[in-house]
Amino acid sequence: MQAECSPNNTYSGEMLLALDLGSLIGKKNPPLVGIDISTSGVRLVELSETGKDQLRLERYASEPLPRGAVVDGNIENIEQVTEVVRRLWKKSGSGTRLVALGMPPASVITKKIILASGMLEEELEMQVESEASQYIPFALDEVSLDFDVIGPAQHSPEDVEVLLAATRKEKVEDRVAVAEAAGLKPTVMDIESYAARAAINRIIGQLPKAGQGQIVGLFQIGTQTTHVSALLDGQLIYEREQPFGGNQLTQDIVRAYGLSYEEAETKKRNNDLPEGYEQEILNPFLESAALEVTRAIQFFFTSTPYTRLDQLFLAGGCATIPGLVEVVAGRAKISTSVVSPFTGMQLGPNVREKQLRMDAPSYLVACGLAMRRFG
């Protein structure tokens, strides 16, 4: 798991780190695809570099997962998920088998600690292990652990700030097993929220004055949960998860029209629902979503020193639901837009631009994972 960690600062021998691909393969940035395994489906992104800080989207693709295959970020049916990943990779047309995977934030413990500077690598590893045992509620032999020396401690220049990241081994092993069974080679394990942050920081960098001084709120509205984060000058200043997602709208459709869950999902995506759907089902959901967003904003204000948000970005599968941006902006009184992680990128010959506009908000995590190829 690469919690913004360098490959040289890894305590565990588990597949929880970003391997130094350059030294292994002899190429600075060998091809790498990002694969995001979520509750609703699996998404793949492959990027290439066309110049300094210039990226090109070579291909992207998604495949839905059977209901129950992944629950609360846990892979419940390895065979089903493996088959979907295998099908997705073939569908994408990618020839790249090196992959970056993500771990749900809720399954990862992160903690910043202060240690004395100047320690040798082995001494640092031993000290990290000792400190980690205080914060991790599991035996260390059950855990995959990674760490990164961030830099000098803010109020103690003779010390260094170190970021710990740990998760249960079986959660890492499940994702590795899926990738390997699908014929792929996992080389990076990131935290999904870190991957999303890498992608959104690239977009913030395209704002006027590179977004300097602006507080940006990001709402990733998934199937079951909404991940809320706020960033200032590229740094995370707040994050939390809320139990709200697009599943609520699907369940409303199921109850209203007597459809199966799968039928409701399909008709929702294709906007193929009876007359009256917008007034009776969609509009109340949009109001609920906007209320969740404004509540989250108020919670941010009351639990931090900050009293403003300058820009809201909506991402996730729900972000493109017609009318959502307008309702949220109207309630929050904040500039609001749907975010595409591919803004400013060149598009490869395999990418259909019209379809991409609809799909892009769902690919924030997958894009951030794919960006690991470049550092």
Explain what this protein looks like in three dimensions.
It comes from Collimonas fungivorans (strain Ter331). Residues 32-200 form the SHS2 domain. By secondary structure, the protein is α/β, with parallel strands linked by helices. The protein has a domain at 208-340: ATPase, nucleotide binding domain (Nucleotidyltransferase, domain 5, 2-Layer Sandwich), CATH 3.30.420.40. Helix content is 35%, strand content 29%. It is built from eleven helices and 16 strands. The chain has helices at 21-25, 78-92, 121-135, 169-181, 192-204, 247-257, 261-270, 277-303, 324-332, 353-359, 364-370, and strands spanning 33-37, 41-51, 54-64, 70-71, 74-75, 98-103, 109-116, 143-153, 156-168, 185-191, 215-221, 226-232, 235-242, 311-315, 336-338, 346-347. The protein has a six-stranded mixed sheet with strand order 10-6-1-2-3-16. Strands 13-12-11-14-15 form a five-stranded mixed sheet, sandwiched between helices. Helix 5 packs across helix 11. The chain is globular, with a radius of gyration of 21 Å. The model is unreliable at 1-27 (pLDDT under 50).
Describe this structure in a few short sentences.
With 375 residues, the protein is α/β, with parallel strands linked by helices. It is built from eleven helices and 16 strands. Mean pLDDT is 88; it is low at 1-27.
CATH architecture annotation of the domain at 208-340:
2-Layer Sandwich
Main beta sheet strand tally, sense and closure: 6 strands, mixed
CATH level-3 fold name of the domain at 208-340: Nucleotidyltransferase, domain 5
Structural class: alpha/beta
Radius of gyration: 21 Å
Low-confidence stretches: 1-27
Using the coordinates above, name the CATH class of the domain at 208-340: Alpha Beta
Q: What is the helix content?
A: 25-40%
What's the CATH H-level superfamily name of the domain at 208-340? ATPase, nucleotide binding domain
Mean pLDDT score? 88
CA distance, first residue to last residue: 15 Å
